[in-house]
Amino acid sequence: MVRVRLLGPVDVTVGDEVRALPGRRRKAMLAVLGLHRGAVVGVDRLVGLVWDDEDSVVLANTVQQHVSGLRTVLGDRLAIEARPPGYLLHAETDLALVDRHVRAGRAADRPEVAAGHFRAALELWRGPALADLTGLSWLRGQGERLDQLRRDIRLDLVDARLRLGEHDRLVPDLEALAAEHPFDERIHGQLMAALEAAGRPADALAVYDRLQGALDRELGLRPRVELRSRRAALLAARQAPARPPAGPTAPAPVPAAKRAPAQLPVTVRGFAGRAAELESLDQLVTAGVAPGGGARPGRVAVISGTAGVGKTALTLHWAHRAAPEFPDGQLYVNLRGFDPGGAAVGAGPALAVLLEALGVPAGAVPANEAERVELYRSITAGRRLLVVLDNARDAGQVRPLLPGPGPALALVTSRERLVLTSEQRSIGLDLMTADEAHDLLRRRLGESRLAAEPAAAEDLVARCAHLPLAMGVVAAQAMARPLVSLAELAGELRDAARRWEVLDGGDAVSDVRAVLSWSYRALPPPAARMFRLLGAHPGPALDTAAGASLAGVAPGTAAELLADLCRASLLTEPEPGRFTHHDLLRGYCRELAAHEGADGAERRILDHYLHTALAAAIAINPSWQPVTPPPPAPAVTPADVAKPADAQAWLIAELPALLAAIDTAAAAGLDGHAWMLAWALTDLVERQGRWDEWQAAHTAGLRAAERLRDGPAIAHLHRGLGRLRMWQEQYADSLWYFEQARERFVALGDRHGESRTEHNLCQLADRRGRTAEAAGHAERSLALCRSIGDVPGVAKELNALAWCLVELRDFERARDACEEAAAIYREFDDPAQEGPVLHTLGEVHRELGDLATAVPHYERAIGMAGRAGDRYAEAVGLDSLGAARLALGDPQAARAAWERSLTLFEELGHQRAATVRAHLTGLSDRHADADDDLGRTG
């Protein structure tokens, strides 16, 4: 048996024989494949990780040579499979064996069985993981992750031994571990359990007290719920202590009326970012006194935003900073508008608290709410007070609490977008920027820890969705678990089953999932249903039509419900009519949909995207080969994409959702939806040069078609992948896909599909410099189109044939073919398809020496390509226009055309950029030579 060993120096065992690996790169490549066992690793990723992103060009054949060497060491050519876009390792690894042991141990009912598996897993380590590859940054991080895994398994073994009753034997080791890791709550919990079982409850309580002191002193945290529960049980088991003897009476507090109230809670430690919002609040300090010295109406600022976005943190940070500007006092009330218990503080009780803080004796507080409002406004009028009204639910709860006229300032925070006065300052708090998020982590964890794992820090910020509450909880976790790498924490956040556990700070206000749930529970039932159904939406954003299909309601109703969610800060509207929310809210929606039911939403939204995408594909290319989808579910409202411009804009905007819908459909067993969605995107991704999206969509679509054993679908997707490989200049793969497609279309008797594939073979032959072969494919495709009466197809093939005839110097036939094609497109009013014909006519006239006629043909073709969003055709047209302009003696116009062409080719990642760059270099050299000649003649 062949096994790759990663848990120590990297090597290979074949049976009992250990085989060393020659060369650091080869060893690193095997490690990367082993760490991704069972998944394809792209060549680009392999190069980036193995060569550590060095500024050197690593050719594909270099990777192939290393793979060939590895296969020799493994003794099995099938152990590493070449699978586009990279390689896949099939061999066993010691890490995979560890994973099986750990899973079995954690699932075992009997502690002795669990302990056996954990011991077997630990025995597979031969030293630090990936010990001989620490010089490569990604592999160094993976080694640290695996070493942390080793520590976790050791603690799993401790749990099993505790269940086996080995308490006394474990105490010394656990005491040493607790001293070494003073913030590790798991170790301290195990030590408490061992001491309690050993009959030492007082020592167990002392362990808790030490942990609590360290967490509070260093991190400002409490121990987690399970440890607090253990402590409560220990205390309950003890006899209640005797009441201490009475002592001297404590001094009476200073009456409230004799000192200014200072009720602001402690500010958040390590506050970061929010410079613009702080500046906006600073401007309010000087806005309280009128120029003549009179009092203005009371000032109000409302800070709104989604749960966990840091509204209270911002407010308290600024309030402490601005406190000296409010010498008459700072008041604070938590209105509990989104409290988990659902009991918001009413205006009456809140006024009683505020009045007592302002020196009104409890017995003098009016019983009637209206009288309380009158007294409160009288007392606050004209005073420089800061009143913080935190976590408000609605405007009715807040308005009675606004101070009277004068320099007082009321700061209100709410998840709702409250409108309290016509002159209020409204601050919508969004997610943190990337820089702000990194600054927050840096302040909490220190510069060195982030610098040691920059990629993991980026991943953490992304996994926390830039949400301050989530990042604060994760930072606290990282501080409490110093042996856990940031990469591993990010990995735990990627795991949907563990995400909420990691984001639980140990109490209601720092449990991210609970905080999000309060907003959901506060919604009226129709809006709550819409929010829950968003969990069935596959993408990051949606429009009103998609929302209507998702919920099975009319578009007008959907617009109202989506607006309700925006007002509750559970959605944002970054552009009119498009809605989104951050990844953690999206994950919470999916959990709700899974647990509470999605009411058929998934099928409706997939039908919505499939039917709209197919209609959009035909709108932007009427000659596109259509497919017939199943009828949509009731209450599905496809978007209106009849106009080509609307269709293209919709496809571009919805591309992330459409790509995700392919995977969602496949996972739901709707393979027909999956492959048709992939096929519908072909023209868009080709015109836009989106090679990665094209690859993802068609690969997933082809897998779906193969599961269905659907011959026409497989043929369509083979043709699509052939086109992709052609543009990527992977000509051998392209030819294979086209030949597979043609063979299937011929067997099916699908002459339309056969003609399209012949057209693609014409393109491929032309790009390979085989012009006569290309002309033959064009003529076969033309004959097929004429035989089935496909008039737009006839025009397309006439243009393809004309292009070949230009290359073959048969200009008269080329011109005739172009003019016939252009006439057909004008009859069908299809300017997007007429553009390539005009470009070919430009080539004909340029070859005939009629540059004055060629230029306007090029210019019209470029304009049509731009309007159609076909960036490749636009770039090619500009390249030809540049050459024609130069030949006409206008180097400035030539430069302008080539510069635009170069920009487009570079954005497309197309190799033709090098050719255009050479044109520009030659133009500059020619200009320099001309300057030299002028200098000599001068």
The total tally of domains equals 6
Distance between the termini: 82 Å
CATH fold field value of the largest domain:
Serine Threonine Protein Phosphatase 5, Tetratricopeptide repeat
Structural class: alpha/beta
Number of strands: 15
Please give the largest β-sheet.
5 strands, parallel
Give the spatial strand order of the biggest sheet: 9-10-11-8-12
**pLDDT < 50 stretches:** 239-258, 288-295, 929-938
Determine and state the CATH class of the largest domain.
Answer: Mainly Alpha
Strand fraction equals 5-15%
Q: What's the gyration radius in Å?
A: 35 Å
Task: Please identify which CATH superfamily of the largest domain we are dealing with.
Answer: Tetratricopeptide repeat domain
Q: Choose one word for the global shape.
A: globular
Rounded mean pLDDT is: 84
CATH architecture of the largest domain: Alpha Horseshoe
Number of helices: 42
Helix content: 55-70%
